[in-house]
Amino acid sequence: MNKQERIQIIQTIRKRIKPVRMVSACFAAIGFLILFLTDQPIWSIFLIVFALILFGISSGKECLEICRITNMKQAKRWIQLRYVASLVLISIAMTLLAIPHVADVSDSHMFYWYLASSVIIIMTVVVETNFDHRVRQADPEQPMSNEYR
Fold first, then answer.
1. pLDDT tens digits, residue range 94-122?
2. pLDDT digits (tens, 9 = 90+) for 16-46
């Protein structure tokens, strides 16, 4: 299977998963709005955790289906590591955003929590790009994520 066929397959996979990702993003947004605007951190944490679970399930399905289109074992490992690392880093970033509001951190220290979360988000992009290049080295016909977005 050539790269163009793989891109079309991956785009089809992503179209099927997109509604779940949108619902996940909505739950996370509602959770953070409740967290930032009210004094009800418990309900917002439930929504954020639910959003992360939905995101994890959709990422897992996407990962498995993308792994099926390559026959190279090393490429499959790098693809799996990319998805796991992304899920872990996004979970950490969301946790770092939520902690100051749940733990009642002073306003002067909130900046550092937000800065740490921003650094984690930037790290996610760097890690994903690094894994993409490793996948490309293991299987030259496997498209990078920027080619099918």
1. 999 988 888 877 777 888 989 999 999 99
2. 999 999 999 999 999 999 998 987 788 899 9
**In Å, how far are 7, 53, 92, 99, 116 from 113, measured between CA atoms?**
38, 23, 11, 8, 5
Q: For residue 70, give the nearest of 9, 14, 131, 133 by alpha carbon.
A: 9
Amino acid identity, position 109: H
- What's the full length of the chain, in residues? 149
Q: Count Cβ atoms within 10 A of the Cβ of residue 144 and give its class: 0-12 exposed, 13-18 middle, 19 or more buried.
A: middle
Burial class from Cβ neighbours inside 10 Å (0-12, 13-18, 19+) for residue 129 reads middle
Q: How many domains does the chain have?
A: 1
Question: What is the torsional sign of CA 10, 16, 21, 24?
Answer: negative
**137 lies in which domain range?**
3-148
Helix (H, G, I), strand (E, B) or coil at 50: helix
